[in-house]
Amino acid sequence: MLGIIGVGHLAAALLAGLHRAGFAPGEVLLSPRGRAAEMAVRYGHALARDNADLVARCDLVLLAVRPAAAAGAVAGLPWRAGQVLVSACAGVPLAALDAGPAQRMRIMPLTAAEVGASPTTCFPDLPEARQLLEALGPVIPLTSEAEFEIATVSAAIYGWAQDLIARSTEWAAAQGLDPQVARRLNALTFAAAGALIDGKPQPMAQMLRELVTPGGITERGFQVLAAHGVGPGWEAACDAVLDKLKGR
Fold first, then answer.
1. Same structural domain, 222 and 111
2. CB-based contact 76:100 (threshold 8 Å)
3. Which one in 47, 74, 199, 217 has a CA-CA gap of 20 to 30 Å to 248?
């Protein structure tokens, strides 16, 4: 059975994804705080009495609390050999999670798990958690915790991408395009760009050179973005997020 400690916004998205993937209500047990009562009514999951009861009853436990609360949420619980603690708490190293003899792993799912589209990073890649991760979208195993920390920056980029889609949609609507058409077009445009890069083996720089016609509209846009320092600003934002994840 899967138990979830910390039923907030992220866990709600993951529960929607699990429901979409066909997880039965009886396969999931929720800790009784946050949005647990709401999710229990929506999907038919049971509520544990407390976190200790949840750990005693579940073989796989997903931790989705705020990072500052992660260590305290798992300490002193009745962990046992054969269990797996799966932490979705950004910036919290495995060493900070005292789960006794249980195995520990880190994942970073996105709220796109709700529609089965989260590229979910993980370390280490434990087979006991594969069914859970594959229900959320593509799984991206990493080889070290240091690599996982770098990859977690993508969770922030996910939010920035949504902001760019929203800004592009608002701009197009202000120019006269139907807002719903603009929303769908911009969302699918970002998805198309990612799908092409993910699906082709060519170097990304080569693909971009082939895309940017001299004197064309893409080149003109790049010129304006460069004049506003968008590239260095984006890289600085990534650096700042990684520093935060490392506690700097």
1. no
2. no
3. 74
